[in-house]
Known about the structure:
CATH topology of the domain at 7-167: Lambda Exonuclease, Chain A
Low-confidence stretches: 226-233
Strand content: 15-25%
Distance between the termini: 97 Å
CATH architecture of the domain at 7-167: Alpha-Beta Complex
Structural class: alpha/beta
CATH class of the domain at 7-167: Alpha Beta
Amino acid sequence: MPVFDPIPLSALQHYAFCPRQCALIHVERLWEENRLTAEGRVFHENAHDGPAETRGGVRTVRGLPVSSHTYGIGGVCDVVEFHANGRVIPVEYKRGKPKRDASDAVQLCAQALCLEDMLKVAIPVGLLYYGQTRRRVEIPLDEALRRQTLALVREVRTLLDTRTTPPAVRAPRCDNCSLLDQCLPDAGQWRRGAQAWFRRRLQADLESEPDRERDAKEAEPERHQVPWAESLE
């Protein structure tokens, strides 16, 4: 019987944010903590703490392990709300504020896919709670987001199976990444620039080679026959 080896839900968020970051963490097993990751870790620990409770017809479960054999993913939901009317709503906690990219929404959608597979229910929406704004953001788990999430699942599976680390690409997001010193995006940028410079120089040298040969021939001194040279032989 094959061993169930699910893709961590966090890997999807890492990949959506930066494929290289995902590889450094989940393939090369590198990790460094900075202020932002430390604050995020404490924030998640607080979200997971405490027993399940019921208030106003809503059962709140914290730190709920979830997985899906159908999609090959698994992890832990920060909070899952079970409403009296049968609705199930995953709530993902994030330290900062809403992002421009879909990395948080993808992670939330993956949690919903796991819950749907486990509980055999439909989950049309999820919630992202941001500590910096102290507000919940409702995320529609529509078909477009589901397709995007499943596409990322396939890409991450390929990355993990092939153990491939994408090259570094410098971007504004790099400044807040805790793996900046391991990733070295600036060094990668310099290497690509240096390689391009050498290629240009080599091409220029190859293209100018015929001109140099012609110039060398034109610069050769003319050979004149000395009238009395034969008499010396």
